[in-house]
Amino acid sequence: MTRKMIHFSRAFLPCAIISSLIIVFGIVGFFIRGINFGIDYKPGLIEEIRVAPAVMDITYSGSANVTFDITNTKADIVISGTGAENETKEFKFTDNQTVNALAESLRTVDGVNVTVNSYGDSATSELFVNSDVSNKLTSTAYRLYSAGKINAQIADVRQALASVSGVSIKQLGSGSDMSFQIRMADNGDGTSSRQLQETVISKLSEKFGADNIAVVKTDFIGSNFSKTIALQSIILLAATVALIWLYSAIRFHWDFALGAVIALFHDSLMMMTFIVWSQMEFSTMIVAAILTIVGYSINDTIVILDRERSLLPVLETKKFNDILDQALTDTLSRSIITTATTMFAAASLYIFTTGEIKNFALALIVGLISGCYSSIFISSGFISATRKNWKPEYGIHHSLRMHKGVLDTGVTV
Question: Model's pTM, two decimal places?
């Protein structure tokens, strides 16, 4: 039983014109509106903070230079300076399992004063310090924090920083290991990294209390580094397309391979057109969406190309477009079903998520539609253009086909 052939080839030229106009529209939009780069591609602040109570304050009233260091297993007090006996006093957490026990041990050091503010029975293994404060002990209290004692959720942190523009927040870890990574872009208004950091700490202090905010790590990304990330993303996409072209060229004829690559460029440019005009934030998640679509689209295109190649020796016709039409007809249901099922997952992500994942899902939906469209009309349309002077070859291929009992459409009986 043969399938009724759909004449997709009649739409090759109109689709090529429409796609070209959309891509030109995207290029115009790039120069008019530009790309809304996310903080992954902008200079700015990256800060990891924890919300926890200050359970212990340490001060020093002596004349020596005293520093305090802490790890997951112990605390060290290093004493040095003129007139002092240089030494390091070690306090293992196995010997001082609670905050109260550690406080008693630290008080044995001359000039060191310790005040336990709260949670004296909490484990010393949960203690950490504010990396934004010098670890040199002075008359000003040096604070130790205990993890997992305040039930702060990422929604609370986002609410606290809602009035600050250009902020991205990510939760790291869970339970007692929970921390929050905060990214804030430098918009070029002359704001220093320290001012950005103070803005974040101020807003969080208003929400959770100044004594409950500790900075774990702070980094400031300069403009050169952000440009490097952008360049690496472009190189990654170009390398991916180049490897796909190499694979296609080995497996198929050069025009089949080039048609597949043109379809990939088409999908990438379509997605960029949507991103430019929608002003969707361009982040590493969007790059991931583009690479996902590149992989998905080439898979769909390869199936179609493989069907076209298999029909070449068995389909008796004088028009190469008949081969393309038959191949597209045979694979149409597969293309629609695989696209639709993947779109269900992407649509669910778009409906039920927020932030970068929602943008990722939206970009994925646009790319899936473009990928299915380009596999059918753009890739095959290019192959049709390169083989407009194609001449059929029967002979041995036709004899072999008849010997195997294959019908003209390539359906085995």
Answer: 0.60
